[in-house]
Please model this.
Amino acid sequence: MAKPREKILEIKELKRHFKVDRKNVLKAVDGLTFDIYKGETFGLVGESGCGKSTAGRTIMGLYQATDGEVSFKGASVHAKKSKKQLKEITRSMQMIFQDPYASLNPRMTVKDIIAEGIDIHGLAKTKRERDDRVIELLETVGLNAEHANRYPHEFSGGQRQRIGIARALAVDPDFIVADEPISALDVSIQAQVVNLLKKLQKERGLTYLFIAHDLSMVKHISDRVGVMYLGNMVEISTSNDLYEEPLHPYTQALLSAIPMADPQVERTRERIILEGDVPSPINPPSGCPFRTRCPMAMEICSKAEPQFIEHKKDHWVACHLYGDKR
Ligand code: SF4
Model:
C-alpha cells in the first residue's frame, strides 16, 4: 500500500487584502485553500497580478494574513510566537526571488551574503567553520571557492540565481518558496537552474512552492500545479493530469498559448484567445471571477461563485461546468 502523504503546509481560506484608500480594498489573495506535501513541488501559476507572489509571501509569514490560516508542520505561521519559535520558522522556510540581482546586496561579498543566515542562526562556531560552509554551499550550487570574495555585479544572471539558492540553503531549510526564479533568465539558463533545484530537492528532501506566470515553466518541475486567477484558486491537479486534461476554461486557455515543439501540431491546434483584460482586484466581478473573459460563461456564472470541488481524484476545479448547478 502506498505510504500516506505527509502534509508540510496547510493553507485554509487564506486572504490578504490591501487597503488602497478609505473606500477601496485590493483583494490580492481572496480565499486560498490547499495543502503542500513533504518533498513535493507545488507549482503556482497565473498571469501577472493574479496574487500568486502575494500568496507566496503570506504563506511565508512575510505578510500578515487578512484572514484564514497557514500551518507549517502543524504550527500556525501567523500566530504570535516566542523569539525561539520565530527563529525556527524563519530558518525552516526560505525564499528564492525572481530578480537575484535586486535581492543580493551589491555592497556585500558573496561570502557574507551566503553567510548572513548562518550568522543570524548561529550555525557556525568559528570563522573557519563559517568559511568552509560557504565554500561547500558554493560548490553545491555549481560555483566555487574563488567566487566567495567577489561582489554580485561580477556574476551573470544564472550565477546570481545560484548565489540566491546557496543563500537559501545556508540555513538548511525544509521548505522553499521560489518566486519566479527563472523568469528573468535566458531560456538556455532556465533549464540549468530547474535541474539544480530538482537535484537539491532529491538530495535534501526539500519541498518547493514554485511560482511562475506560465504553465510551460512549471511543467518539468512540479508534481502538482495550482492555477490562480484574480486572487482565487481555480484548479489544482497533478501536473500530468492538468496538462492532459485541463478542466477550467482559464487553464485551457493558458495551455493553448504554450507553443508546441512539433511544428505540425503547432500549425493545426486551436488557440483559445482570451478577450479583455484581467478585471481589477479592487472591484472583482460577481459570481465567478473569470466570467468576464470566459468563452463558456452561462447565466449562473454571474450569480453564484462556483465551489472548489474534487471533480475526480486529486483534480479540483472551481467552475459551474462541473458540479450540479448547471
Ligand atoms: Fe466560465 Fe462559468 Fe466556469 Fe466561470 S464558472 S469558468 S464563467 S463556465
Summary: Residues 248-249, 288, 290-291, 294, 296-298, 301, 306, 319-321 surround iron/sulfur cluster (CB under 6 Å). The chain is about 35% helix and 25% strand. Residues 187-204 form the longest helix (18 residues).
